[in-house]
Every structure is written in structure tokens, then in C-alpha cells.
Automatic annotation (TrEMBL):
Family (UniProt): Belongs to the peptidase S8 family.
Name of protein: S8 family peptidase
Metal-binding listed as a keyword: yes
Entry keyword set: Hydrolase, Metal-binding, Protease, Serine protease
Lineage, top ranks: Bacteria, Bacillati, Bacillota, Bacilli, Bacillales
Domain of life: Bacteria
Catalytic residues (positions): D142, H171, S325
Gene Ontology terms for molecular function: metal ion binding; serine-type endopeptidase activity
Domain Peptidase S8/S53: 134-371
Amino-acid biosynthesis keyword on record: no
Gene3D superfamilies the record matches: Peptidase S8/S53 domain
Amino acid sequence: MKETIRKLARQMKAGRKSPGRTTRSVIVLKHEKGYDECIRHLKAAGIRPVKAVRRCRLIGCEAPRGVDWKALRRHPSVAYIEKDRLVKAHGRAVHSGRIRGVRVKAKCRIDPAKIPWNIARIEAPPVWKRTKGQRAKLAVIDTGIGPNPDLTIAGGVNTIDGGSFKDDNGHGTHVAGIAAATGTKRIYGAAPRVKLYAVKALDELGVGFVSDIAEGIDWCVKNRMDVINMSFGLTGESRVLREAVARARRKGILMTASAGNDGPNNARIDAPARYPGVLGIAATTKGNRVASFSSRGKGIALAAPGVNILSTAPGRGYVRMSGTSMSSPHAAGGAALLRSLAPAARAACIARKLVAAAKPLPGGRRAVGAGLLQVAPAAAALLTKHARRTRAGGGARAKRIRP
């Protein structure tokens, strides 16, 4: 490997002398020994990786176009090398103007005036009598999360440069509010007391590299997240992203992802929504119809509101946005509620309950999956199953939630 990397370094040095574009590539090693060896030889050759994730055996390098990776690709320690592709956020439109929060005096523990139509539509509030998600950990992999009176952030990470995970775009904060707004000032999200974590892997333009996403997913695995929301997509293919999702799936993490905003004429929905173990979420209107921009294709599991959705913005404001980006966190918040109700339930079981409880909608499975997300019926079915197991074991009967 040493001589191969030396030749690669000479190519890179020669390429930098002539002006031109650079590209990022990802080297994935077969084992940790090979990873350590590769890092050592890269350093010795003067190549500084832009990304190095030992748990994933992943190394990202930036190089001038025209550099030949074939020799390194053939090395027995190298699993594969692929282009570090870009993903983009699936938020479509930010409506002009910010809506400032108005303090509303609550006459009860749950103020109905703070429940947006979209949160009521997915039937999350009936579950709040039993839990608001406080026993679950939900990570939003996005542009970060900014401060807002209706958001409580438990922690996070910046996988782009290791800096702050605060939102410099607004997309991630909006997504987080749909899933987890506390109702302290203006609005409730689907799971108002969930432990919310910010994973900043997209930049100020709402764009990010697959390697940063993979590192973010790895962070979620390491920190034992229960649910991951991914409101972004990739039209092409990435083995790095697919394998990162598969690792999280094996660790029992439930993942939701936006289907994409390419409308009815796209060839397929975006990745990671189409990958096994991920609930792909389409967007619906206030009239319970599939949104015109929502991508169609195999892999859509559910649909949720995604048009003109009011949610949190960095600072003290609130904005309305549209996109399948807004649909996915409804499902993530709903999944967090179910995980909080039954912490021992497997992610696959929770996903099945959500899909089985969906309200059928016109459009077909390639447009809306099983239908409109309905959290309360799914919670009731989950608790009924838990009650049967408890009775079989001689325990107390679980209380059923009325949908």
C-alpha cells in the first residue's frame, strides 16, 4: 500500500500545479488494520484526509480531477472507492416573512391552541396522555438546529468541520420543530418532550457530502439514538450511505427519510428513503391528497402533511415551508412516541404498527404508501400487543389508548 499511495500523492501534486476542479472520493477499507495502515501512509505521503471515521473504516480525500484511483482500488485491504456524492435538503419553499411568537396562556397542561393542524392530522395529541416522547432519543441529521423558545436541544455534533451544530440555514430547525417543538411558546411538535439531538451534516446551502452523513449516522449509533430523521436525498447511488443505514438498522434504530420533491415523473424516490430499514415518507396537502411535488416510486411507506407547514426558525421566529422534508419528521416524532411507550419494542415492530395503522388515501402505494400517518391507532395496537405479552407472563394489563 505504501508505494501505491506514494504514486497517488505524486499524481495529486502534479494535478495541483495545473488549475482545475477537485473532487472528493471515499476510500472504505475491509478491516481496521487496513484502515490504520492507509491513514499512516497517507500522512507520510503528505495527503491530509478531509474525513476519517475509524468505526466505519472510511477515509475521505480531495484530489484534482484526473487522479487515477485504480491501483489503490485493487489493493487487497481496500473494500471499494467511490465518489463522495452530494445530498440536498428536501425543503421546497420558505414563505416570505417570519411569524413572531405570541405568548398564549394555557388553561390546561396541553393547550389546544398550540396544536398545528398537521400535528392534529397525524393523531399525535391523543398519545400525549401517556407519553410526550420523554423516554426516546431523536436525532435530526440536517443543517443543524438553531435556538428557539419552542426547542430544547439535548446535544449534538457537527460532522462537517467539528464546529457548532447550530443551524446556519433554517431547514434543520424547521424540521426539528415539526418533530419536537415543546409548546412552550407557540407550537407543539409530534413528540414535545423527546430528547432532541442535532447532527449538522448539511451546510448553509442545505447541501452535504455522503461521508458527512455517514459520520452522522455513525454518531447516532455510538450515542444510542432511538430514531433518526433524514430530510434530504440523493438521486444517484451510494454504497457508503447504504452501508451506514444498514449499520444503524442492525443496531435497532428506526429511520425516517423524505421521499424527494421531483413530482410524479421521477424514475424513483431518493436515497436513503428507498433503502431497506428506512421509512420513506411522501407529502400530503391539507385536503389529504398527495402533494404535486412529492416524488413517486417504490419504497414509500407512509404519507404525512408537507404543504405550508408552520414550524420553528432559528431565533424567536416561525416560518412556513413545504416539501417532503416537512413530512418525514411527522413520522420520526410519531415513532419516538411509540418507542417511548414501549422502550423494548423493536424498530421493525414500531414501523409495522405505523404502516398498519395508516389511513388509506387516493393515489396508490407508489404515491402515498400505506396512507396517512396515524400515530394514536398505531400506539393502541402496540400497547395491545404489549398487553397480550404481559398477560401471558402474568403481569398487569396495559392501558389502551383511544385513537
